[in-house]
Amino acid sequence: ALTCSIIGLARKVTTLCASIYFYGHHLNAIQGTGLLISVTAMVLNFWGKKKGGGHGHGDGGRAPTAPIAPEEMEKMLSESEDEEQGDLEMMDQEDDKK
């Protein structure tokens, strides 16, 4: 769907530029600026897709993260083990209340 919308945008902008050129339309400064912005945005969008800018499927929309050092990973794992024990202790206390 995204590819179709990009192609549709390219077709519209190309038709507009061709019309201006072939029929000799004159643009004022605001119209020319708007056309320049839209063509620039379209070209940059195409370049971003070709370079694999991470906008395709599978990137999950997340920013890239730095790898975690092994020491830090061990610390996080030991903390998660402590949390699991805490949950078990709470369950034991709830069982005692019953």
What is the beta-strand fraction? under 5%
Number of strands: 0
Number of helices: 3
Estimated radius of gyration: 28 Å
What is the element string, with H for helices and E for strands?
HHH
Give the overall silhouette.
elongated
Structural class by helix and strand composition? mainly alpha
Main sheet specs: none
Arithmetic mean of pLDDT: 74
Low-confidence stretches at least 5 residues in length (pLDDT < 50)? none
How widely separated are the two ends?
57 Å
State the helical fraction: over 70%
Question: How do the strands and helices of this protein lay out in sequence?
Answer:
Blueprint: H1 2-23, H2 29-50, H3 70-97
Description:
The chain is mainly alpha-helical. The protein is 73% helix and 0% strand. It has helices spanning 2-23, 29-50, 70-97. Helix 1 (2-23) runs antiparallel to helix 2 (29-50). The longest helix is centred in the last third of the chain and has 28 residues, at 70-97. It starts with a helix and ends with a helix.
Task: Provide a concise account of the structure shown.
The protein has 98 residues and is mostly helical.
Overview features:
mainly alpha, 0% strand, elongated
